[in-house]
Amino acid sequence: MGVLNVTPDSFSDGGRYAGLEEAVAHGLRLAGEGAAIIDVGGESTRPGAQPVSLADELARVVPVIEALRKASPAIVSVDTSKPEVMRAAARAGAGLINDVRALRAPGALAAAAASGCAVCLMHMQGEPATMQQAPHYADVTAEVRAFLEERAAVARAAGLAPDQLLVDPGFGFGKNMTHNLTLLRELRSITAGAVPVLVGLSRKSLIGTLTGKAAAERVHGSVALAVLAVAQGARIVRAHEVAATVDALKVTAAVIGGG
Ligand code: 8Y4
């Protein structure tokens, strides 16, 4: 899964169309590098980020989804928690809803179930604005696993089919360094469940803390964590540097026998 941010700080502000063209070109590059899924996000979920209005989020993501859908066979994913965005994205051709709030927003469960899209249910402790202030767990892996099992059961009860679901432990979302490292070390306990696991570790701050590198220089650390996750059964990796990640996961898959 390649990351395509369509927040205003991601692409040029030389008029709306210039930003759209650049975003679509970047999405097509990710697909050309081997991403099977392009994750289009118009709301920043970084710690402390400001919430985005519905109108702004729709205006950012819908044209990009439509254009990518027309120009590429890749599955287009929409990174959103808003039911209105889920509905509009599905109409525009999205095949996956990537929700960091795991369909907990009012109306999101029904919107996702009616959309026909697959859904990725992610764990987050707290809300983006405050989640990194004092994350706390007695047993991070057990608590994340229990949350994901509960949200998958709720999603199935709302009408989503078992084969429409993915779960994600949500690295960095209300987790400190120790929590992130423990979760990754114990990832088998989550991938052992019935629902395929997606992970997002690319460029995250644990890599910055461990290597001292700025976000754009974290590719080697990101690839190492992607390999560790897939070696423990993760099925989809969300990545900024798709070419490097795809090569690493091709050789990883050959060794572990996943094909
Ligand atoms: C530098 C660059 C530092 C990016 C931090 C970040 C996930 C996700 C995000 C994830 C799923 C991010 C939308 C955070 N992370 N969706 N989204 N799983 N499913 N931070 O881990 O990339 S955004």
Describe this structure in words.
The chain is of the alpha/beta class. It has one domain: TIM Barrel (Alpha-Beta Barrel). Helix content is 46%, strand content 13%. It contains ten helices and eight strands. The protein has a six-stranded parallel β-sheet, with helices on one face. The chain has a two-stranded parallel sheet with strand order 7-8. α1 packs across α2, α2 runs parallel beside α3 and α3 runs parallel beside α4. The chain is globular. 46% of the residues are buried. Ligand 8Y4 binds next to β5 and β7.
Quick structural gist:
The chain is α/β, with parallel strands linked by helices.
Write the layout of secondary structure elements.
Layout: E1 2-5, H1 16-32, E2 37-41, H2 54-71, E3 75-79, H3 83-91, E4 96-99, H4 108-115, E5 118-122, H5 140-157, E6 165-168, H6 177-185, H7 188-191, E7 198-200, H8 205-211, H9 219-231, E8 236-238, H10 242-256
Parallel strand pairs: 1-2, 2-3, 3-4, 4-5, 5-6, 7-8
Helix pairs in contact: 1-2, 2-3, 3-4, 9-10
The structure holds ligand 8Y4.
Attribute tags:
about 260 residues, alpha/beta, TIM Barrel, six-stranded parallel sheet, two-stranded parallel sheet, about 15% strand, globular, binds ligand 8Y4
CATH C-level class: Alpha Beta
Flag low-confidence runs.
Answer: none
Assign the CATH architecture. Alpha-Beta Barrel
Q: What is the CATH topology assignment? A: TIM Barrel
Q: Report how far the terminal alpha carbons are from each other.
A: 18 Å
- Fraction in beta strands: 5-15%
Average pLDDT across residues? 95
Range of helix content: 40-55%
Number of helices: 10
**What Rg, in angstroms, do the CA atoms define?**
17 Å
